[in-house]
Amino acid sequence: MRRRPLALAVLAATTLAASACAPQDQSNDAASSSSGGGDCTADSLETLESGTLTIATDEPAYEPWFSGDDPENGNGFEAAVAYAVADQLGYSKDQVTWAQVPFNAAIQPGARPFDFDINQFSITDERKQAVDFSSPYYSVSQAVITTAGSAADGVTSVADLKGLRVGAQVSTTSLQVLTDVIDPDAGPVVFNSNDDAKLALQNGQVDAIVVDLPTAFFITAAELDNGVIVGQLKNSGDGGDQFGLLLEKGSPLTDCVSQAVDALREDGTLADLEQQWLSEVADAPVLS
């Protein structure tokens, strides 16, 4: 779901053109229950390290979610959300420590070397068997991208994609949507990372790949030669696919982290951050 960043100016050129994303789901239904609750202040929270909030993400940390492959700088949508949640919980920026945890490792059962992880984790019932999620901080659609002149260039319907070679990253909602919605005749082509998927697309080994829509804009504008957004997939967002902060199963922090996310939604902070970092994503065509 993520790309290695180029200059921030390239992203700015692609993201400041259109309107903000759809409003966040106001419900708290997607969050897992936890044993937490009570006083949600930095002095009382049971964090991994006393007085410190440890936040994790993958490496590299891709645009537009982060900037400069550096979560600590607070730039990019998810970096900004992470620091806003930390502030809501009473942690200053210098009380936040970042950890590097691969996407696939974070969603597996077991102890976690972080208090929460922010890494475009879609909230699913299957994942909630192994981990906790906060309230959703972003609703996202999935999109199909290709290169100019490929067999997928100019396609306007899902049916036209079924006979093509289409890939996505393993263990992601992108792959699930590819399998369930497009259901290619030859089966999905599965990659270990979006880097591998992008390389295969560039080399003509696949006709298209599926990624989340904000990432689609960045990849096609800044990383692919002659990149093209084929279109977004209907009903793959707007409450169907929502990102949540990931926590250890039964974490005592889950309720408080969800309360922080809810407060940021209610006071308009999340909408403002979407407008700042993800403003163009409502502009892609929808595949019929």
Q: How is the CATH topology of the largest domain named?
A: D-Maltodextrin-Binding Protein, domain 2
At the fourth level of CATH, the homologous superfamily of the largest domain is Periplasmic binding protein-like II
Cα separation of the termini: 23 Å
Give the biggest beta sheet: 6 strands, mixed
- Which class do the helix and strand fractions yield? alpha/beta
Rg from alpha-carbon coordinates: 18 Å
Order of strands across the main sheet: 7-6-8-5-9-11
Query: In which range does the helix fraction lie?
Result: 25-40%
The total strand number stands at 11
Q: Name the beta content range.
A: 15-25%
Oligomerization category of the chains in this entry = single chain
Q: What is the CATH class of the largest domain? A: Alpha Beta
Low-confidence stretches: 1-37
**Order of secondary-structure elements:** HEHEHEEEEHEHEHEEHHE
Task: Please tell me the CATH architecture of the largest domain by its name.
Answer: 3-Layer(aba) Sandwich
Q: What is the mean predicted local confidence, pLDDT?
A: 85
Number of helices, counting only DSSP H or I runs of 4 residues or more: 8
What count of domains describes the coordinates? 2
Shape: elongated
Keyword list:
11 strands, three-stranded parallel beta sheet, elongated, single chain, D-Maltodextrin-Binding Protein, domain 2, 288 residues, six-stranded mixed beta sheet, alpha/beta, 2 domains
Question: How would you explain this protein's 3D organization?
Answer:
By secondary structure, the chain is α/β, with parallel strands linked by helices. The protein folds into two domains: 8-139 and 242-280, 3-Layer(aba) Sandwich (D-Maltodextrin-Binding Protein, domain 2), CATH 3.40.190; 142-233, D-Maltodextrin-Binding Protein, domain 2, CATH 3.40.190.10. It contains eight helices and eleven strands. It has helices at residues 8-15, 77-89, 103-106, 173-182, 194-202, 213-223, 254-266, 269-277, and strands at residues 53-57, 96-100, 116-117, 131-139, 142-147, 166-169, 189-191, 208-212, 227-233, 242-248, 286-287. Strand 1 (53-57), helix 2 (77-89) and strand 2 form a beta-alpha-beta unit. Helix 1 crosses helix 6 (213-223). It starts with 7 loop residues before the first helix and ends with a strand.
